[in-house]
Amino acid sequence: MFLLFFSLFMYEVLHFWPNVLGFGKPDMFNAAPVDMGIKDSKFWDDKAKYHGYDISNNAQGAPEPATCKDFFALWPSDCVDKYGDLHEKLKVLSSQMVAMNSSLTLFVPSTKGCEFEHAAVAVKLYDQTELLKEAGFEPAFAVMDTWVKTRYTRISDIIRLALAHKYGMSYLDTDITFLELRKELFERSYVGAAIWSNAKNAIEISNGAFCLPKHILRDMMSFQRSRILSGGDKYFYTELGPSMFHNVLMNRHKVRLYSQNNPAEPSLDEIARAIHQYGHKHLHLTGHVRKGNAELTFGEIVNTIRRKVGLPELVYART
Fold first, then answer.
1. What structural domains and CATH numbers belong to the chain?
2. N or C: which terminal CB in the chain sees fewer CB atoms within 10 Å?
């Protein structure tokens, strides 16, 4: 455990603070604007042509049956304390939903303070206890009741699967942003894979954005239940989330991987450079990214990255 915390501390020292203090910054990255509309895929099509890919296959967008319909996000409490933060993120997501002719449902356990007026975004109340009963977690309630109530990550890892299974929607964290604005890409089976390091081939499957069929979601919830009931009372941070995705998906299920940014890299130039290298279709703009660009709003971070890549900027409604 000491080695884990020390490694995370050193990563922050080496990768975050040099940028804040103004030294060790990566070179600026600004690509030429791509002649394309906000909903076009020219950037990704040109990348595929450059590499000589067969663009007739499903990986490049050939029609296939949708696994999910529309999108949802989850907020683990009422919206009072984080209203401004949520308002900004939903403003950005609203712009993307409108562009994709889709909609986003924000599920909350309490609607207090959750009065948002964003196009294509709705707030929906859910009953956490009833949802978990429907998903088969009632035998684990005695253990789950011992968890610290203000630490939402563990319970959120479970709730998002239960909601996805119940409603058949595509999930995203509120700090996910889509680059290629074609909803069919995110309504077929996929998970995000964060590329932490190209040189060391370090990739982590993420649970921050996904669309999965119900039989896979059932396997995942079964894994979570068995871990809660049979394991010890010590959990590592990603045990019921990304680590569980690894355990269930690898060697068992066929699911498409969409690359996404290193979640601990705050440099917008480095993020833009990686988009050009890999062709990311979406990004996870985590607290590390936002903390490293504290002078910018969430919407400004998104459009700064899009501008650096050469993509058209999003237009946000005034609210």
1. 42-51+69-309 (3.90.550)
2. N
Question: How far is Cα 1 from Cα 301, in angstroms, rounded to an integer?
Answer: 34
Lookup: tokens for 78: 């009422």
Both tokens of 141, joined, read: 């309630």
| Tokens 């709003």 belong to residue | 297
- pTM of the complete model: 0.88
User: pLDDT (tens digit, 9 = 90+) per residue, 189-204?
Assistant: 999 999 987 666 688 9
Helix (H, G, I), strand (E, B) or coil at 231: coil
CA distance 262 to 248: 22
Cα 181 to Cα 176: distance, rounded to the nearest angstrom: 13
H/E run at residue 273: helix 268-278
List the end-to-end C-alpha distance of the chain, in Å, as a whole number. Answer: 46
Distance CA 293, CA 298 (A): 9
Q: Which residue has the tokens 């019921």?
A: 240
3-state SS of 286-312 is: CHHHHHCCCCCCHHHHHHHHHHHHCCC
Phi and psi at residue 248, to the nearest 5° = -85, -40
